[in-house]
Design brief:
This is Uu.00g015930.m01.CDS01. GO terms for molecular function: hydrolase activity. There is one protein chain. The chain is an alpha/beta fold. It contains 16 helices and eight strands. An eight-stranded mixed sheet has the order 1-2-4-3-5-6-7-8, sandwiched between helices. The longest helix has 19 residues.
């Protein structure tokens, strides 16, 4: 802890319970409905008119914590299937715009069905179907995003052999006209199927985009319980990037969101020579694994059981007691010495009142290793949204030496259904 008295900066909140944990109805009314109406995280590509009937059915069932995840997921399937069926019909009629929207709206329903992590059979089914719908929808857009299979050449110790990713390469990119690249690391619950929402703004600026999940989430091949597995995966990723003739290897930036920020801090130190700069938005590095923190966060800002989801993500399954006992020693970037290694240019951004990962971890980062850049957004919670985006985008524009209008870029993020 970095606050005076060896306490967390939000120590006074650790015993509280947020209202949205009372029931799904409370979650929807107090937290999720406004986000859905705006078409922003976690409802990228989502429409309230699609979700409201599903919410009504869940409320009628009285679902609340602890959830039966199969029962929860099943509620979303009929509407998702209806949208995908309509998308297929529109595609067969040659209406690419309508088909793309409907596929992506279907993928949004499947996403919330498997949220926050595919821990049950039907949630895993939702993840598979959501990928299918998202891949089709994104492939039909004016700036198409395609799925690529990156060989994990450095696989070891239980890693899988392939890193699936979403990739957009500007049409004008070539060996003689190379494009800069943004590598997006997704978070604990937001995967490539939804972080693809950031593609549009970068594509309009002629910037390539590669979106990958982090170990223990989505389709990342890294062994989630091996602290070194991300280093192997990213080495394989950079091997593949190095083979792309249209990418400017001297202008590659990594941006990690939330839990992805933990991996961005790590990659800034382990692969510093590959990166022009790194942004860690809302990440952690050490205190995020403190037992006291983990005991409290299931009832704070996160919509569901954050600590239990992290336990699953880091390879501990449902053994929370062992996760709480071992996680900091195994995964801390401080105790492992990572933070004291040379690093790429690194920007740390978060809200001061974050209840998902403590702002204390960014103070810790600033006290170790090479000097880093930081901006904390006062009085805001996790990731400091939306102010944080108006900090990060100009920083990246300047770093890559590109002209960009932040407000125009941000106007590409919210989703409003047309059909």
């Amino acid at each position: 802890m970095a606050a005076p008295g060896n306490k967390f900066f939000i120590q006074h909140r650790l015993g509280q319970s947020a209202p949205h944990h009372a029931s799904f109805e409370a979650l929807w009314e107090t937290k999720w409905k406004p986000l859905c109406e705006m078409g922003v995280y976690p409802f990228m590509f989502g429409a309230t008119k699609d979700f409201q009937p599903v919410v009504d059915s869940i409320v009628a069932k009285g679902l609340k914590e602890p959830y039966d995840w199969d029962e929860y997921a099943q509620c979303f399937f009929p509407k998702a299937e209806e949208l995908v069926s309509s998308a297929e019909a529109a595609e067969n009629e040659g209406d690419k715009e309508k088909a793309s929207e409907l596929y992506l709206r279907g993928s949004a329903l499947y996403r919330i069905a498997r949220f926050p992590a595919p821990r049950s059979e039907k949630q895993r089914y939702a993840w598979a179907k959501g990928k299918e719908a998202a891949t089709k929808g994104l492939g039909l857009q004016d700036y198409p995003m395609v799925e690529v299979a990156i060989p994990h050449k450095h696989a070891h110790n239980g890693d899988a052999p392939v890193l699936p990713a979403y990739f957009h390469l500007p049409r004008a990119a070539s060996e003689s006209r190379k494009a800069p690249l943004i590598i997006i690391f997704t978070g604990l619950d937001g995967y490539r199927t939804e972080l693809a929402v950031w593609k549009e703004g970068w594509a309009q600026l002629g910037v390539a985009v590669l979106i990958v999940e982090i170990p223990g989430t989505g389709d990342n091949p890294g062994n989630p319980s091996d602290p070194d597995s991300p280093d192997r995966v990213w080495t394989s990723m950079f091997d593949w990037i190095g083979e792309q003739a249209g990418i400017d290897q001297s202008r590659i930036v990594n941006w990690g969101f939330s839990t992805g920020g933990y991996y961005s801090i790590r990659i800034a130190h382990t692969h510093a020579d590959k990166l022009k700069g790194v942004v860690a938005l809302g990440g952690g590095c050490h205190h995020m694994f403190d037992p006291e923190w983990l005991d409290a966060v299931d009832l704070l800002e996160y919509p569901f059981d954050l600590a239990q989801t992290l336990c699953y993500k880091f390879g501990y399954g449902t053994d929370f007691d062992r996760f709480k006992k071992e996680a900091r020693e195994r995964f801390s970037l401080l105790d492992s010495g990572i933070l004291d290694k040379p690093c790429a240019r690194l920007l740390l951004v978060n809200g001061t009142d974050d209840e998902i990962f403590p702002i204390d971890d960014y103070y810790l980062c600033l006290q170790h290793g090479e000097p880093k850049e930081a901006r904390f957004v006062p009085g805001t919670k996790h990731m400091g949204e939306p102010t944080s985006f108006f900090i990060i985008l100009p920083w990246i524009f300047k770093l890559l030496e590109i002209e960009g209008d932040v407000r125009r870029f941000m106007s590409t993020i919210p989703f409003k259904p047309k059909y």
